Every structure is written in C-alpha cells, then in structure tokens.
C-alpha cells in the first residue's frame, strides 16, 4: 500500500452499450495535490470521476481511494470522499440553509450541531445573506458555492469536482478558483475535471489529458507545455489566396482554421513568434491580423495527438 | 477566505430511523415552500367528489347523501393511489438533478433515501386523505364506526399507499423525465380506478368487466375501506385488500434496490 497516494487506479474501464466511455485508465493522485483531468466533452471525464466516487461500477480495473479498495469497501471510500457533480446536486425547493442542515443530519450530526455547521459553512462561503432563499432563486455562482459547501459538511480526504466552473461568469469562476486553492491549502486532495486548459494550468499540480476514454498525456503544466508549446501564434493573411503558402512557411505544426482564413502555429516563446512573422514578411505575405495566445484545448490536442479534439 | 474544516472525529453514522426522520423533515419543508403541490394532490379528488355526488349521486344511489356513503371510502382509495404517482415524479426529479448522487455518495443505509420518500408519501397521503374526508363530512358523510372506523381505514390507506408507491419508485428509477412518469402513471391508473367499485356498484356492468372488477386490487381495497368505515370489516376483507400492496412490496422493493445499485 502506497500511503502517499490519495488515489491509485489501474486499468479502469467502463462501457455504456457500444461506447467505451473509459477505456483502461491508470491514475496516481498524490495526497494533498490538486489534480486535473483535462479533456473535451464526451472524453470520459465524468465517468472516470463517478467510478472513483463509487457512483458507477467499473467493468474492469481496480482502484484504491485513500487506501480503501473501491470494489471491496465502497462504504469506506464513501466515508473518505465528497463529490460535487456537474449539475448542482441540491434540493431546489429548499433554502440554502435547509439543504446544508439536511446533509449534516445525514452525516450524523444532531439537529443543533447540524444547524451550527450549516451556519459556519454559509458564512465561510459568503452565502449568509442568501441562507433563507430557496436554491431555485440562486445565481449560478451561488449555487456552485453552495454545492461545494455541501461537500464539506465533514472534511473529506478527497474532493471530486466535476467541471466546477463550467457555465460560470469570469468573476464567479475566479471565486471558485480561490475556494479550490483555499481547500488545497488546508490539505484536501482535489481531483477536478475541466475542459479549460487555463483552469488546469492555473490550479493543478498535475494534469492528465484524456480523450476517447484513454489517457493521452500526463504531467505538470510545464511538462505538457514542453510538448505542446506554451503559446500559439495566430495569423490571418490579407490575401486568402496566400493561405497555403503561409502554411508552408509556418511549418508542419501549423494548422488552418477550418472556417475563416486564420492560421495557427504553436510557439515556445515570443522570439519564435517574431521569427515566424519575419519569415512571412520576407515572403511578401501581408497580414490583416496576428496575435499570440495560450493554446486552446483543441491546439493542445492537435499537438498531442495530431488530430482534432473529438 | 478561510474555510472551516473540522479536524476532530466525525459524528457517528446516523441510525436508519434518524435518517428517515431527516427525509420526512425534507418532505414537510417541501409542503411549506411549495404549498401549491397540495392543490395538485386534492384538486382532482375534490372535483370528483362534488361532480359525482351532486350530478350522478341521485341517479346512482337515490340521493346525494346516500351516494356519499358509498363514494367517500372509494375516493379516498383513488386519491391515495393517484398520489403515489407524485413520489415517482419527485424521485425522477431528484435523479435528474443529481441530488440522489449526493445521497448515494453518503455513508448511509442505501435504502434510506427511499424510506425517506415513503415517509414523505405517508405524510402526503394523510394530509390529502384528511382534506377529502373533511369535505365528505361537511357534505354529510357519516362513517357508522365513527372515529375508530376513520383511524382503522386511514391505517389501511397508508398500507395501500406504501405498496402502490413502489410501482412509481421503480418507474421513477427507469423513466427519464418526471412528465413521462406522470403520463404513464395516469394511463395505468385511470382504467384501473374506473373499472372498479369506487364510483358505481358493478352489477350493471357486462359480465367480463364484472369479472375484472371483482379481482381488481382497487376494488378489494375499496371494499375493505367501506367495511372499516362501517365497522363490519372481516379479517378476510382486510387480508384481500392488503394482498396487492404486500405482493407489490415483496416484488418491487428488491427490484428497486437492484435498479438503484446498478446505476
């Protein structure tokens, strides 16, 4: 038993009919880390998370969560984890406070202790004023915060967060990020899924990239960027007829946008971007627009697999 | 931002009774926050009671008052059976919202969420039954066995609700949307409650239908309800009325658990 691992999974598989949602994934998540599973819609992220949280049975493979075997002691796994699903798993008719009191009662708190715990969490999550409002009247960001609070009635060993910021506006997203960092600072291991490279980059100590139910890359943000380039240069030739020539000049790693005239090429730094621009200029290709940006998930996938994300 | 994360020992896991009590509390809160659900529960039976009593009552039983004596125990059965649809809808809603995932990832007795639904149902059946009975009493219904009859017949009513509730819990687990649960439920329940002895004495029905009505569990339950209200119930009548709910529970409770674990 490796005590320094919060999660150790080997060969996890799960199919739904003909669809191999998770097709043999190994995962080692060290204790105390924020670990991100990055992938497009339908890559198998949610199924992987649900298997580790005992909500979906694996067809094959083994896993230990906080030292407990998933198949042999699911109840011990359940006692060691908390899961916040992709859609707020709350009772919309009840108020924020009532939701938390109900869950605290289900964890075994007495009525008085349950109310006290609900009060603490509402205050810490900046929901004290909305405590008596029905959840159906909450904004997206408030709902997400309450949902995460509901996972922290007792201190979990591992917190699973399924796409914690999907659908949130930028300020609500920043709030959830602060929250995740705060929990990590308290020593909670966090396994989160995301479609946003930036989110994984900002939060996670390690990132596993998955696609079609398989892990296609894993490493620190720095290691992945070494494979994919830390940024992307986008250029749009003035004359669309020059696109093919420009693509040749930019090299093998360059990609043409399927719609529109934009071309993209991964670059490691601004100097490399400048060199590309200089070569285009020498060839007499005028540009209407150029920009240097972080690679999108699509571009990471292209760099890792040589094909478009699913 | 500092998040209060308790380090001490966790509370001991709650007992099944305490868990069920928490789910019952949730059901009470729902009544408080969504009082209009009560309207859904009793609107149709109230309409039925008034229409049948005053429009058909005289023709069917000689007078409206005489018809009330016949009809009230039956409409109580119909109300309860119809209201079991709502627990299936509630379950389907909880499942689609992911709330059940949260319950399932808690270290509690795995049937507890269903036990909780049932407790909420019992509450709903009692409230809806009391409203219908109250209207019946106001219109002139008089159970011969008095308060004893009312208490005994309500106990039977809860047993009926418990047994039939499993049908819609299973549907709620299998069917994807709450609306489909309702449509399916009513498609089954309308014929089963009309082809019974709730509204009319089946003697004027064609023979093949009489044969069905005689073995229809809804008729057996209604007969026992009438007998309990009148104070003439035999063990045989009560046994027959409980047969349906008992068989449903024996078959569907394990199926519920299997379906729930399979997800």
From TrEMBL, chain A:
Domain ABC transporter stretches: 7-237
Pfam families, per the entry: ABC_tran, DrrA1-3_C
Keyword Transport carried by entry: yes
EC number: 3.6.3.-
GO biological process: daunorubicin transport; doxorubicin transport
UniProt entry keywords in alphabetical sequence: ATP-binding, Cell membrane, Hydrolase, Membrane, Nodulation, Nucleotide-binding, Translocase, Transport
Cellular-component GO terms for this entry: plasma membrane
Molecular function per GO: ATP binding; ATP hydrolysis activity
Membrane topology: Peripheral membrane protein
Protein name according to UniProt: ABC-2 type transport system ATP-binding protein
Family label: Belongs to the ABC transporter superfamily. Drug exporter-1 (DrugE1) (TC 3.A.1.105) family.
Keyword Cell membrane assigned: yes
Protein localization: Cell membrane
Enzyme class: hydrolase
SMART domains in the record: AAA
From TrEMBL, chain B:
Pfam families for the chain: ABC2_membrane
Localisation: Cell inner membrane; Membrane
Signal peptide range: none
Primary localization: membrane
Membrane association type: Multi-pass membrane protein
Alphabetized UniProt keyword annotations: Cell membrane, Membrane, Transmembrane, Transmembrane helix, Transport
Domain ABC transmembrane type-2 positions: 36-263
GO cellular component: ATP-binding cassette (ABC) transporter complex
UniProt superkingdom: Bacteria
GO molecular function, one term: ABC-type transporter activity
TM region positions: 41-61, 67-91, 126-142, 154-175, 181-200, 207-228, 240-260
Keyword set includes Chloroplast: no
Family label: Belongs to the ABC-2 integral membrane protein family.
Name by which UniProt lists this protein: Transport permease protein
Organism the protein comes from: Limimaricola soesokkakensis
Taxonomic path: Bacteria, Pseudomonadati, Pseudomonadota, Alphaproteobacteria, Rhodobacterales
């Amino acid at each position: 038993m490796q005590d320094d691992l919060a999660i150790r999974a080997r060969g996890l598989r799960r199919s739904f009919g003909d669809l191999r949602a998770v097709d043999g994934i190994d995962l080692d998540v060290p204790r105390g880390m924020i670990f991100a599973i990055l992938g497009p819609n339908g890559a198998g992220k949610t199924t992987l998370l649900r298997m580790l949280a005992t909500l979906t049975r694996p067809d094959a493979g083994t896993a230990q969560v906080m030292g407990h075997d998933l198949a042999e002691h699911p109840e011990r796994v359940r006692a060691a984890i908390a899961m916040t699903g992709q859609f707020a798993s709350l009772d919309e008719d009840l108020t924020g406070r009532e939701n938390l009191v109900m869950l605290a009662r289900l964890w075994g708190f007495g009525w008085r202790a349950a109310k006290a715990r609900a009060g603490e969490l509402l205050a810490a999550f900046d929901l004290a004023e909305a405590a008596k409002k029905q959840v159906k009247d909450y904004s997206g960001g408030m709902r997400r915060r309450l949902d995460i609070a509901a996972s922290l009635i007792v201190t979990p060993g591992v917190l699973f967060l399924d796409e914690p910021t999907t659908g949130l506006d930028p300020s609500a997203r920043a709030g959830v990020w602060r929250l995740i960092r705060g929990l990590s600072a308290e020593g909670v291991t966090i396994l989160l899924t995301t479609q946003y490279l930036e989110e994984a980059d900002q939060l996670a100590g390690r990132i596993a990239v998955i696609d079609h139910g398989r892990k296609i890359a894993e490493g620190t943000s720095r290691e992945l960027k070494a494979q994919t380039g830390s940024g992307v240069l986008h250029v749009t030739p003035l004359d669309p007829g020059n696109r093919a020539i420009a693509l040749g000049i930019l090299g093998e790693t360059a990609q043409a946008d399927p719609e529109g005239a934009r071309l993209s090429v991964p670059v490691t730094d601004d100097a490399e971007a400048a060199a590309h621009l200089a070569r285009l200029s020498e060839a007499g290709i005028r540009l209407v627009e150029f920009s240097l940006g972080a690679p999108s998930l699509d571009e990471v996938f292209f760099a890792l697999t040589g094909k478009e994300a699913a | 931002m500092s998040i209060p994360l308790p380090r001490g020992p966790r509370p001991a896991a709650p007992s099944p009774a305490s868990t069920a009590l928490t789910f019952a509390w949730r059901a009470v809160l729902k009544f408080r926050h969504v009082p209009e659900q009560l309207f859904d529960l009793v609107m149709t039976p109230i309409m039925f009671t008034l229409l049948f009593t005053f429009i058909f009552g005289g023709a069917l039983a000689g007078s409206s008052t005489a018809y009330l004596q016949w009809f009230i125990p039956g409409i109580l059965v119909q109300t309860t059976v119809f209201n079991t649809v709502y627990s299936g809808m509630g379950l389907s809603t909880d499942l689609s919202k992911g709330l059940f995932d949260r319950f399932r990832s808690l270290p509690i007795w795995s049937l507890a969420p269903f036990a909780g639904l049932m407790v909420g149902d019992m509450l709903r059946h009692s409230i809806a039954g009391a409203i219908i009975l109250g209207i019946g009493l106001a219109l002139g219904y008089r159970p011969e066995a008095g308060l004893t009859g009312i208490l005994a017949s309500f106990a039977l009513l809860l047993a009926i609700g418990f047994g039939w509730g499993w049908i819609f819990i299973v549907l709620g687990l299998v069917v994807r949307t709450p609306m489909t649960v309702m449509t399916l439920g009513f498609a089954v329940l309308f014929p089963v409650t009309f082809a019974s002895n709730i509204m009319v004495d089946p003697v004027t029905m064609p023979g093949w239908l009489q044969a069905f009505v005689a073995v229809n569990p809804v008729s057996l339950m209604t007969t026992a309800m009438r007998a309990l209200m009148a104070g003439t119930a035999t063990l045989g009548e009560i046994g027959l009325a409980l047969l349906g709910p008992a068989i449903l529970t024996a078959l569907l409770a394990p199926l519920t658990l299997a379906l729930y674990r399979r997800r």
